[in-house]
Design goal:
Elements: H1 3-84, H2 88-114, H3 116-145, H4 150-153, H5 177-187
Length: 192
């Protein structure tokens, strides 16, 4: 092999190495940029979970108040019974009111059952956050492999352990009120 050919091959090799270094540098910058955004995405997901929990709790508080109002209204209707038993038209009205209150109680229970979406949403968001944490860790490992100090600098300060069921789904086919009442009746201790 001639010196000229060897020189050309060394120059081609040097050009290839320079191109490889530039490519690695570009890849590293892309990884650093992506890895910097992952904690922001996780924070946004946690904010969504917190706000959803807060809104759900507020709705549950309102439902609890409505149920208490219905119970108080039923007690008032019962107090009227002795005074109205001789008036068939009034008895019919009171029975209609009882029916409406019972329907309200059933509807309140259905709303509470529907609010299970919040827990399921939280579980799914926690699953996504966990996946993002894993991606971030893998990107940090890649940065370390490329010799970047950024991989060492960005470590999870406090590793957040998230509970989730990645297969959790919302079902509108919840137990009917009669089924719930039956279970509660069976669970009661005799004499209470």
């Amino acid at each position: 092999m001639s010196i000229v050919n060897l020189g050309m091959e060394l120059k081609a090799l040097a050009d290839n190495i320079t191109h490889l270094i530039m490519s690695i540098s570009t890849i590293r910058l892309t990884i650093e940029h992506g890895r910097e955004k992952l904690p922001l995405a996780t924070d946004k997901l946690e904010k969504i979970t917190t706000e959803t929990e807060s809104a759900t709790q507020q709705v549950m508080d309102v439902l609890d108040s409505l149920q208490q109002n219905d119970t108080a209204a039923l007690e008032c209707i019962q107090k009227l019974d002795p005074f109205c038993s001789h008036e068939p038209a009034v008895v019919e009205i009171l029975e209609s009111l009882r029916g409406l209150m019972d329907k309200n109680q059933t509807d309140h229970t259905r709303i509470l059952e529907t609010l299970q979406f919040q827990d399921l949403t939280s579980q799914q968001i926690n699953y996504v956050s966990s996946v993002l944490d894993n991606v971030e860790n893998e990107l940090n490992a890649l940065l370390l492999a490329f010799g970047s100090d950024e991989g060492n600098a960005i470590k999870k300060k406090n590793k957040v352990v998230r509970a989730f069921d990645s297969k959790a789904t919302f079902s509108t086919a919840g137990a009917g009120q009669a089924e719930v009442d039956s279970i509660l009746k069976e669970a009661r201790i005799p004499g209470q």
